[in-house]
Specification:
It is a single chain. This protein has 11 helices and no strands. It is elongated, with a radius of gyration of 19 Å. The chain is mostly helical. 75% of the residues lie in helices and 0% in strands. Helix 10 packs antiparallel against helix 11. It folds into 2 domains: 51 residues, Arc Repressor Mutant, subunit A, CATH 1.10.10; 140 residues, Tetracycline Repressor, domain 2. This is Transcriptional regulator. InterPro entries: Homeodomain-like_sf, HTH-type_TetR-like_transc_reg, HTH_TetR, TetR_C_15. Keywords: DNA-binding. GO terms for molecular function: DNA-binding transcription factor activity; transcription cis-regulatory region binding.
Length: 217
């Protein structure tokens, strides 16, 4: 059964205040950088607020001025990464739909280039994403981002084939998201050459999955 967060819990995980001055922004960046470093060192085990404060060279009180708990800190790191995807996917919906399979393949390649850059540029965030996935309090919020991404994939497929049923489009979108993410994580843990080869494999899997539903020549 999927968990959902009530309003009280969501508020508890929100940053206490948003930095409005450059100095405050730098403090927040120090907190997030420290959390990222510790998460990389500790794997999927979430660092304590005290450990984050010490690594950032701040008092615990200074950290609590901006974040109510360690989960809120991890969530902010994850949000920065997850929020990069919807706009990239939505771009494919804004262009004219492809009229044949070769044009669609080129559109998929453009999407892969853009999303791969997000993974490669933020490779150090992957332990944080895995930590969020394994945290029962944070996972429901990641699920909200997942739903948005799945809906965008579905909208993209329906943009290509307006006759495609929404239920089918969302099922395909779910597979596209899960397979793409899982395989890229594997590639990031290896080396760049392996990452690129896995990217090609995922692209082939995507095309094999969705082509029968797109009514393209």
């Amino acid at each position: 059964m999927k968990r959902s967060l009530d309003r009280k819990t969501k508020i508890a995980l929100e940053p206490r205040k948003q930095p409005r001055q450059q100095r405050s922004s730098k403090v927040v960046d120090r907190i997030l950088d420290a959390a990222l470093i510790l998460t990389r060192e500790q794997g999927t085990k979430a660092p304590t607020t005290l450990a984050i404060a010490q690594r950032a060279g701040l008092s615990v009180g200074s950290v609590y001025q901006y974040f109510p708990n360690k989960e809120a800190i991890l969530l902010e790191l994850g949000r920065r990464w997850l929020s990069s995807f919807p706009e990239v996917i939505a771009t494919r919906i804004k262009v004219s739909p492809p009229t044949n399979r070769e044009e669609f393949r080129r559109e998929v390649r453009k999407l892969f280039i853009d999303t791969s850059r997000i993974y490669l540029d933020n490779a150090t965030l992957m332990p944080v994403i895995e930590a969020i996935s394994g945290n029962a309090d944070l996972r429901p919020i990641q699920d909200e981002y997942d739903k948005e991404i799945i809906a965008l994939y579905a909208a993209w497929l329906q943009h290509v084939n307006p006759a495609l049923e929404e239920k089918t489009a969302k099922r395909l979108g779910l597979v596209m998201m899960e397979v793409g993410h899982a395989c890229r994580l594997v590639g990031l843990k290896r080396d760049r050459k392996t990452f690129d080869l896995i990217e090609d494999d995922v692209e082939a899997m995507w095309l094999a999955l969705v082509n029968p539903y797109l009514n393209l020549d």
